[in-house]
């Protein structure tokens, strides 16, 4: 499994709403190494309705965007792009990289360690409450010692 890296997400005030600063894959990997933050790669397509919904609801949620800004570098990866990007000593198109991670549905979220090594892929749309649980499970390294269901049960976080 392979994953793309994202840049440090800094919330910015734009029209009264907080938003994330997304970076390209290569820049995201560089930022993650410098900041020792994990990378969240949002894999999308231009025609994907659920991708647009995730952008409009989940990523603009204040709790989600602040958490991402503090714990992740955030990257957007267009699963249909032929733009070339480097990853782990090779060069891929964004489309090839998405396929290498096993992405076949959209949106999908790839999580990477600060050094660019893959952690996991979360397929599909997640609402803000659900996504908050997912990103904290990964960022706080709970995935190393327990299953997601165990984490939810212990932490009393909503599913």
Descriptive notes:
- With 159 residues, the chain is of the alpha+beta class.
- 36% of the residues lie in helices and 26% in strands.
- The chain is built from six helices and nine strands.
- The protein has helices spanning 25-35, 49-58, 62-71, 94-100, 128-139, 148-155; strands at 7-8, 12-14, 17-19, 38-44, 72-78, 84-87, 90-93, 108-112, 118-123.
- A five-stranded mixed sheet has the order 1-5-4-8-9. A two-stranded antiparallel sheet has the order 2-3.
- It is globular, with a radius of gyration of 15 Å.
- The protein starts with 6 loop residues before the first strand and ends with a helix.
CATH topology: Glutaredoxin
Query: Structural class, please?
Result: alpha+beta
Q: What's the helix count?
A: 6
Instruction: Specify the CATH architecture.
Output: 3-Layer(aba) Sandwich
Brief descriptors of the model:
five-stranded mixed β-sheet; disordered N terminus; Glutaredoxin; 6 helices; globular; two-stranded antiparallel sheet; 159 residues; alpha+beta
Give the secondary structure arrangement, pairings included.
Elements: E1 7-8, E2 12-14, E3 17-19, H1 25-35, E4 38-44, H2 49-58, H3 62-71, E5 72-78, E6 84-87, E7 90-93, H4 94-100, E8 108-112, E9 118-123, H5 128-139, H6 148-155
Parallel strand pairs: 4-5
Antiparallel strand pairs: 1-5, 2-3, 4-8, 6-7, 8-9
Helix pairs in contact: 3-5
What does this entry show, briefly?
This protein is 36% helix and 26% strand.
């Amino acid at each position: 499994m392979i994953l793309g890296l994202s840049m440090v997400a800094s919330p910015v005030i734009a029209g009264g709403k907080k938003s994330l600063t997304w970076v390209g894959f290569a820049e995201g990997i560089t930022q993650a190494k410098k900041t020792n933050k994990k990378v969240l790669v949002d894999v999308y397509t231009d025609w994907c309705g659920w991708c647009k919904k995730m952008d409009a609801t989940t990523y603009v949620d204040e709790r989600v965007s602040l958490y991402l800004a503090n714990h992740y570098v955030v990257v957007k990866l267009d699963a249909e792009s032929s733009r070339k990007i480097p990853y782990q000593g090779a060069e891929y198109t964004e489309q090839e990289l998405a396929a290498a991670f096993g992405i076949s549905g959209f949106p999908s979220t790839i999580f990477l360690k600060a050094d660019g090594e893959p952690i996991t892929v979360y397929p599909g749309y997640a609402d803000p409450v659900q996504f908050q649980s997912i990103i904290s499970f990964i960022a706080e390294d709970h995935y190393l010692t327990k299953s997601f269901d165990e984490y939810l049960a212990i932490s009393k976080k909503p599913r």
